Amino acid sequence: MKLIDKLQHSLKGLIDAITRYPLTTAFLVSGAIVNALAIENMGDPNIMYNKLFVVFLVGAFLATVAQVLNERFFRNNQKRLVLYAISAILAAGYFFIVNSSPELGMDIVVRTAALVFALLIAFIWIPSINSKVDFNQSFLAAFKGVFISVFFSGVILAGIGLIIGAVDLLLFNVYEEAYAHTANIVFTLFASLYFLSLIPNYNEAEDDRIERAISATRFLEILISNIIIPLASVFTVILVSYIALNIGGRFWDENLLEPMLVSYSIVTIIILTLAVNLDNKFANIFKKVFPKVLIPIVLFQVLASVMKIGDVGITHSRYYVIMYGIFAIAAGVVYSFLKPGKYGIVAIVLIFLSVLSTVPPIDAFSVSKRNQINTLVNVLTRNEMLVDGEIVPKSNIDNQDKKIIINTTSYIYRMNYTKDVEWLPESFVYYTDFEKVFGFKEYEIDDREPYAGITRNMLEPLDVEGYTAMTVIYFEDIKARGTEPFETEVVYGQDVYAIGFKAEETGDGNFYIEYQDAEVLILKISDIVEEIGDMQTGSKELSTEDVSFIAENDSLKMKVIINHLDRFETEDGYRWNGEAYVMLGFND
Questions:
Q1: Spatial separation of the C-alpha atoms in residues 463 and 439, rounded to whole Å
Q2: What does the angle CA 44 – CA 49 – CA 54 come to, to the nearest 5 degrees?
Q3: In 3D, which of 53, 75, 58, 49 has the Cα closest to residue 24?
Q4: What is residue 372's three-state secondary structure?
Q5: Nearest residue to 99 (alpha-carbon basis) of 53, 62, 161, 138
Q6: Cβ contact 510:524 at 8 Å
Q7: pLDDT by residue for the chain (588 residues), tens digit each?
Q8: Which backbone phi and psi does 548 adopt, to 5 degrees?
Q9: pTM of the model
Q10: CA distance 188 to 29
Q11: How far apart are CA 580 and CA 559, in angstroms?
């Protein structure tokens, strides 16, 4: 009976969430339908499905924020409809922004993530404005809701997956996309609505329900106080010691430290926000000490990031690192000197900076594009390599300037900004045209690892005549892959063959075909490299014929077609990786 009561209670909660958030539900259902269509048309190059899903996702968050705005300030159905209409109009406007881009590129993905994050924080913060619950309590309720909904969704998905697998194995073949459709429904619809069902209307819900939502469970209190806070304390001691020992040099140019410091400050702020709701020795010490420790750590990180701009300019990732650093310093100040009731200021700052980073012309991508292009123009002009709107190739320039040219040109090419640079050739390809355009190789700088790479011309067709089976193999040296081989079985009549790749202890590697546990055909990476020849530095494109290699005996033949092969020289030898098509054929 208790189980039935719990199921009925959960079902009622879902129905209440749908009733409370009707426009959000409509956007989520639309997103699930678009996802289902994308799953059914997996091979379709049309990216409209992904664009629509992004828009419906943003629309769902807009509608959710509109609902909590109405609950907190208006509690009026007419104004609720007005807020919903504004949400729908904003979602439609975002569709035109997304649809104007020819592809769902990095800029759209990052902008969407920033907007969704800002809307999520707004959803948590708005109910706490002049309310009987503060921001920290609302944050705790949302934090618990996320974990509970994800946990139950994972359990449901695993259970349905086992049922589908059992039916497929024991009764009849199940449609192969059933797993993907199940995951779509569970995570797009169920997880979202179940999360919303766990967040009460703080203005109308009963006090005991609000208390359950905003109170830390005993498990969470033990987890934060006795495990997470001590671990964070030890890590902080290590981090502070490193900064103190290296503040005179290495700290300022250590690239790996930047993401570590950002991750550390994110975790610290989350722990601080959760710990506000706890009252025990460990939590109280953490709340007093860590905000004050956070400020100098993040300040040093921001200064180091700003100094790196001199070497690589402003990229969108560094823009967000600096922007987040500003927020983290503000959060440290708030947590250090203001009372818990004022901690909502943290949410306001975070929402403001997140939205700011998406609004042209001061958004992350507009700023980084202007900065990278201007940086490249300045260094070319300084070295008399940009004359009357044309690039003059030159190799005898300072290595630091070469590095700036390499980094900025690489970024401009990766971000598809070359069309905005009039003096770059219209068909400029960074990996093949760099040396011809600028006069030096993109991998010749002393502080870069010597690199050599070849790429197959992907526009040329593959010749598969005479071959029965083909597989794609991603291969790496033994330091990356280890001795475990990559292997695929092929059944031909009554015989079973294995097509595979195995890295060797010597640093070499073998493509092979195996029959009855014995390797019958082998092609070595070293032999392939030797036959290709001229793998010194830089990257070049070869024809399919030039990267096709065959091994055969009286009964079998193997063809290896290299799609790309990259090789890096390190202090202890070469590191390499790549991708290849491997074909199995039979000689009559």
A1: 37
A2: 145
A3: 58
A4: helix
A5: 53
A6: yes
A7: 565 666 676 678 789 899 999 999 999 999 999 999 988 886 555 568 889 999 999 999 999 999 999 999 998 899 999 999 999 999 999 999 888 877 777 788 888 999 999 999 999 999 999 888 999 999 999 999 999 999 999 999 999 999 999 988 888 888 888 999 999 999 999 999 999 999 999 988 888 888 989 888 888 889 998 899 999 889 888 888 888 887 776 666 665 567 777 788 888 889 999 898 888 888 889 999 989 999 998 888 888 888 877 667 888 888 998 899 899 999 999 999 988 888 999 999 999 999 999 888 899 999 999 999 999 999 999 999 999 888 999 988 888 888 889 888 988 888 888 888 988 888 888 877 888 889 887 765 545 456 677 888 888 888 888 898 898 988 887 665 555 677 888 888 888 898 988 887 767 788 999 888 777 888 888 788 777 765 555 667 888 988 899 998 888 899 999 998 887 765 555 677 888 999 999 887
A8: -105, 130
A9: 0.74
A10: 8
A11: 10
Structure tokens, 380: 């070319």
CA–CA gap between residue 466 and residue 470 (Å, rounded): 11
Q: How far is CA 213 from CA 27, 29, 151, 274, 350, in A?
A: 26, 26, 17, 13, 24
**Residue corresponding to tokens 């968050």:** 61
User: By three-state DSSP, how is residue 508 classified?
Assistant: coil
Q: Sketch the domain layout of the chain as residue ranges.
A: 2-214, 218-359, 365-448, 455-586
**Tokens coding 396:** 């005898």
